[in-house]
Every structure is written in C-alpha cells, then in structure tokens.
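Figure S7 source data.
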Amino acid sequence: MTKITVTFLGTTASIPTAKRNHPAVHLNYQSYMEHNFLFDCGEGTQRQIFSSNVNFMRIDHIFITHWHADHFAGLFGLLETMGLEKRKEPLHIYAPEADKFLERLLNLGYSSKPYEVIQHNVEFEGNEIQILLNESEFQIVSIPVKHGVPAVAYGFFEKNRLKVDKEQIEKLKLPSQGPFYKKIKEKGSATFKGREYKLEELCFVEKGKHVVYSGDTMPCRNIVKISKDADLLIHDSTYFEDMKRKHSSLDQVIQLVKDADAKQVILTHISRRYQNEKELEDKIKPLKNFRIAKDFMEVVI
Ligand SMILES: [Zn+2]
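Tokens for the predicted zinc ion complex:
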C-alpha cells in the first residue's frame, strides 16, 4: 500500500497570526521509494518545518503557486539553510515566471550554494493541465488559476495500478507469483498449463490517489477540471462570506466542490479576521467532507 501524508506548515492569508503561519504545504509520498514535495514557502516556513515531522533536506522539488510575498518569502532562508547543511543534490523549483523571480532571489546577498537550483517555468495562461514531473508511480501537474497575477494550482496524481485478484487466483489454483503475471499485464492474456487467461479475469485496476492544492484563486473552471474526483482538495477559503476579492469564500468553494466531486476538502489561507476557531468550525459543521486547516495538521491518504 502506498501512503500520502500532507502536512500543513502554514495556513494564514497575507498576514500571520499567533496560530497561523504563512502558506506552505508539504506532501510526503511513500511507495517503493519516498518522495517529498513542498508547495509554497511563506515566511517562516523553515521554522515551521523544524517544529514538524518534515525533514527539509529530503525535499527535492518546491512548487510556488505565485509570487505574492506570503507564498514565497520563506524560500530565501530555506535555500540558505540547505546550503549551510551541505546539500549537494540539485533542487528543482517550479513557478509561473520562475526565471524572472528566482534569478533575483538567488542573487541576493553574499551567498554561494553548494548545490544547483534548477528552475522550471510553469504555464499560467489557458485551460490546459501541464505535466511537470512524470515518474513511474505518479505525476505532478499544474493548471492556471484566477488571482489577478500569474498563478497556478498544483495536482499530485498517483498512477492507477494493475493488481492481481488474490481470491480469484486461489480459486483457479494458479501460482501466487511468477513470469505469468508479468506477461498477462503486458500482453493482456497469458497461458498457464494449456489454458489461456485474460487480464480482466485475474486483475483489477486500483485507482491512484489524487491531491490538489489551489494556491490563491477565485473559484474557476480550471480548479474543477484538475480536482475532478480528487481524494483531497486543499482550497483557498480566505473569506467565509462573499467579499468579491481575488480569493474564494466558503460558499464559492461549496459550489465548486459540487462540480468537482472531491472526496475531502480542506480550507486554507484563512484571513486573520477570523480568530475564533469555534465560529469557523460551526460554519462547516453541516458539511461532512469539509475541514479547516490548522498549522501542523497532518492528513494521511
Ligand atoms: Zn496571493
């Protein structure tokens, strides 16, 4: 079984509060290998990391949704600390207009990094899903969103797996492993002791897990597109009433989730005007698949 652990390192909007740091979401994926990804890196993210279960030296890919300071101001310090801890492996950073902003950030002050930073420009216009990372077990993709400045959402898509139906092979008295299964998965059929077996007789598709992080955005069709049937949608809910600003409100997210059919929704980027946690919890009580993010919250999928 594979496991995804999402850790909320920062959940406020624009201005931090005593309880909420600037935005950052860490995703740990465990299968045959372990992978660690950071989405956004607001000011103070490295201190949040040190207070969490996240190991920052294992992060090889950082994804910035847009260049508003609350989403990237922690990058400078985090990159410095990685250098001081003698990181050697290259670090990949993805963002809309990465070349324009990263170049400036990497040349601030008298620092020299003992590792390479590889920049990736992410498309921020149109309605297409862009594949940024394509590994044997998963993909990380992006899609443009609506925030008044170049901004994107990111999605982690685990690939579907073909699994052998153990009950069925016991019933048919077939061996539990061997080259027969490699052949049937590759060719769609295979022969054992003179009988031909079809793939659909012995195998089934296990659907891959799917997590989406909206970054800052007004509700938009692209979010519906990227989060269709998601196991977890982490969405901007800066406001709990409609403010008509370049973010989303609770009602708008509820409406969007009806179309997207996400199984679980976590609202984040919460404005500091909402200091009373109990009041917020009461607002989402009738919504069974909704939760409000808190700093250091961990969600396992
Ligand atoms: Zn923003």
